[in-house]
């Protein structure tokens, strides 16, 4: 039997506290600077204790990048919920549709927080490094989940996922440049569709060069994948 009960009062309170911390952190970090804003200033502004903060986030970097991490958590959850098409040849289509499902399920106002978070990360080296580490960790998780759903070998699977992530980052750059101060989720979806639509053409370019690359390297890429 499916449980249709909504979140409890305690869960709703935790979500409100989490959102308040994210919104205030982004406001303070944007106005004062990430390094210049202390944790004391943040928790005082939200009127919570540091203990409450650390029950919700692990660090200032964690709260600053919360919108990005929320999206990728939703992506993994969406991937796990989606029925796998055993007849599908490439996992690329499944990976791309999962992104649109994750975007559709994000909370109201998420895109504004995400835009502010990305703008902050773009000018803060510590956040850029944290974001890249998180991206690598999420990629590992997606590879693991997809490996259980497809017969594609680990190398090709990982490269396919990395290609999807590269397209996503291109979409983000263009969306951010276009958005200015106003975040539009529909515009983010449009840029994402444009980026993802180009991926089959990238695969065609690689296919056209496969023989030449194979001659140069001595083996075709992947010929020895899985061999001892």
TrEMBL record:
InterPro entries for this protein: Homeodomain-like_sf, HTH-type_TetR-like_transc_reg, HTH_TetR
Top-level taxon of the source organism: Bacteria
Annotated ranges, domain HTH tetR-type: 15-75
DNA-binding residues (ranges): 38-57
Sequence intervals crossing the membrane: none
Keyword Transcription regulation: yes
Pfam family, one: TetR_N
Keyword Manganese: no
Gene Ontology molecular-function annotations: DNA-binding transcription factor activity; transcription cis-regulatory region binding
Keywords, comma-separated and alphabetical: DNA-binding, Transcription, Transcription regulation
Name of the protein described by the UniProt record: TetR family transcriptional regulator
Organism of this sequence: Streptomyces hainanensis
